[in-house]
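Re: export button greyed out
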Amino acid sequence: MHRLILILILALAIPAVAARAETRLHATYLRTEQPRPPVLSNLDPVPEDDGPAGARLGQTDNATTGRFLGHSYTLDIVSVPPGDDPLQAARTALAASPYLVLDANAADVTAIADLPEAAGALLFSVAAPDESLRDTGCRANLLHTGLSRSMRSDALMQTLLSKRWTRVALIVGPRPDDGDWAEAMRRSAQKFGLKIVAVKEWSESADLRRSAAAEVALFTQDLPDHDALLIADEADDFARYIAFNTWLPRPVAGSDGLVPTGWSTVVEQWGAAQLQSRFEDLAGRPMRPRDYAAWAALRTLGEAVTRTGSNNPAMLRAYILSDEFELAGFKGRPLSFRRWNGQMRQPVPVVQPRALVAEAPLDGFLHRENELDTLGLDRPESGCTAFGESP
Amino acid sequence: MKRLFPVTALIALIAAQLATAGEIWVTNEKDDTISVIDVATLEVVRTIATGERPRGITFSRDYARAYVCASDSDAVQVIDTETGEILHDLPSGEDPEQFVLHPDDRHLWIANEDDAITTVVDTETRRVVAQIDVGIEPEGMAVSPDGKIVITTSETTNMAHWIDTATHGIIANTLVDARPRDAQFSPDGAELWVSSEIGGTVTVFDTATQAETAKIRFAITGVHDDRIQPVGIKFTPDGKTVFVALGPSNHVAVIDAESREVTDYILVGRRVWHMAFSPDKSSLFTTNGVSGDVTVIDVAARKAVRTIKVGRFPWGAATRP
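Workaround output, generated via the alternate export path:
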């Protein structure tokens, strides 16, 4: 039945392309500003426009393409300061357009998706890696272009396994995010048959800029032997002080060293160099993972408008979730969306600061339908039912 | 007399070989060089230094000059093919990736990948004649045999832009599948073929109406569809057969141009980009970016017969008889 509806929708869409009628699409990038926890080092400040700059590039890319087809695109960027009501901002945005790109935590994303005004809207989450949003907490009007934690941890474990670094130790930071990231790595280790030989909670309160050499050596001295040392430190607080200071000479991975990520400056293959330089020209800085997710959300909308000639959210959603949809995302494979939970399938670069080490899925990790589905929650694992039409 | 005959025959044979052997010029994207392969010996006989990140390459009609897109030097370089010397740079616009020489042997049409522009340069006056706004990341370039239409494909906009060479105006924009990389007219000019790298297809258009007439798909046993990424397209001179390089699937497809059927897949090196025929059309040379070599295909046998090591990340290829 749903298939039939989809076919009808697509059939209706085709004359719109042929007619080249003026089609307008307005979207809002809505950010709820999150206070950042204090971190030990000031070396890498997070840019103010992390995320919005990617959305602006996606908007520009869409507009250039639209010019040739009579399609026009506009984008508002709204940033809600801490303490202000994100729901009110979302209502205002939804009154102007059904297309929202959400740069917000899981609680805000869920609350916005559940607004009565958001029924029938199409929302993209770019900054909430939480597994729950792809699982039982999913929403039918919510797609994800940002990576889930398990997509990152699966990519990392595939890489470690391919190197036969199968015995790993894990250091977990004190914040809730760190626990979630550690949990994702633990599950992925189990999924791919790696052994976690020890887990230690990071509790040192010393200023590691001065004493990392002494503190970290001591802290890691009692770990059983391992091939690699995993660190869960989502806020980028202490992780940078671990490498080269450990008791045993071992590579670090997870939140520092070998890192799985949605995007990185070291990604240059598959035409990525062009995207990198377009972004640099626009933002005056390198592209970051959140920028990439925002760019991908805008480009997903643009690609759907280009192919259907429509700006109707139900029609675009149906097209985006169909087999027809594919986005060229500079990662070497077409990007598409999982019909069971709205997550964008994508290769995951696994990088060190100066070069790409691997791009997951790695060779040999097979899947009966799409190798990209070896990363993150696959259909049988996801408890999401909101996308009822999954065959 | 009897003894003389074989000797003259031999001399004639050698002379014929010398006359027809020729060279294949290959640009090495990450070595900033061109490897010149001798078709008779299948060896690299010269290595020519270029500007940064050389990609597109073509020759003037008399083959006295080579034009090379030095992408990261933002220039098209003109090289004396006898001496290997760089004669001068042409203004090319930013980041030239591919180009096509108009049948007038004078105007180069250049895709400026970073600027969403197609630039037309007069190779005699060394001036920019026109710049045309196209889609994002223009790459593939083709000119119709009658010289009336130039095609630019844009990788992120996913279109072939049809440009009237007389007015420099765009007369049509046709959508293709994701990330179009190469465009080629059939030798008679009746059809345009466009490869889509991420879409995994080749779209065929009727030149007269710009209407899509066919879409060609590929399937290789043991290779996931996502890895089948069509890039370079090459017609045989009779227009009956088309070779399509399939990128990281490491195969070249052979297509019957009339029936649109894929008749063969030939295993070559890793991430195959572009191709050039030997002057006698009996062999086809493929650039294999990741393995850093060139595969020689026996065209009649549809088989890879030789691998030649060149520089790092070979990309473009062109034939010099």
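Chain B touches chain A through 27 residues (CB under 8 Å). The button fix ships in the next patch.
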